[in-house]
Amino acid sequence: MRNYELTVLIHPDLEMNLEPAIAKIKDTVAKYGGKIVKEENDGKKRLAYPVKKQDFAVYYFYEVELPTDAPAKIEGVFNITDEILRHLLVTVDERKLKYQAKQAARRASDVENTNQESEE
Q1: Residue 41 clears pLDDT 80, i.e. is over it
Q2: Is 91 helix (H, G, I), strand (E, B) or coil?
Q3: What angle do CA 10, 17, 83 make, to 5 degrees?
Q4: In a designed cystine with 59, which of 8, 21, 38, 42 is the match (CB 3.0 to 4.6 A)?
């Protein structure tokens, strides 16, 4: 299983009832053996240029774990789904994640050392 980031732009007319579109996305990921790790609704935003004659879209961001053959299948389903205006599925750079975790741990230890010094 590899880690991916999935960004989906959902048709703005569905803003009042997003559940069916979200359920379709989740079902598609699960159907191909994937697991959603994190889900984030970024809300309705104006697009930089019209997509399928729409100026706005509802942005959803997912962190998913997928088997190696699943991304192509998922993209094929999303390409023919009317509720989805656009989608982007990219792999997560594992080295970057490790580096960021190491930097966060280093900053946390620096803050802890600073707090201990100021208490003395």
Answers
A1: yes
A2: strand
A3: 30
A4: 42
Run of H or E including 65: strand 54-66
Per-residue pLDDT band for 95 (boundaries 50, 70, 90) equals: confident
Q: Please tell me the number of Cα atoms within 13 Å of 84 on its side-chain side.
A: 23
Give the span between the Cα atoms of 45 and 58, in whole angstroms: 6
Q: Which of 63, 46, 64 is nearest to 9 (CA)?
A: 46
CB-based contact 87:78 (threshold 8 Å): yes
CA distance 104 to 56: 36
What the block records as the tokens of 120 is 């003395």
Residue 119's pLDDT band (cuts 50, 70, 90): low
Beta bridge partner(s), residue 87: 8
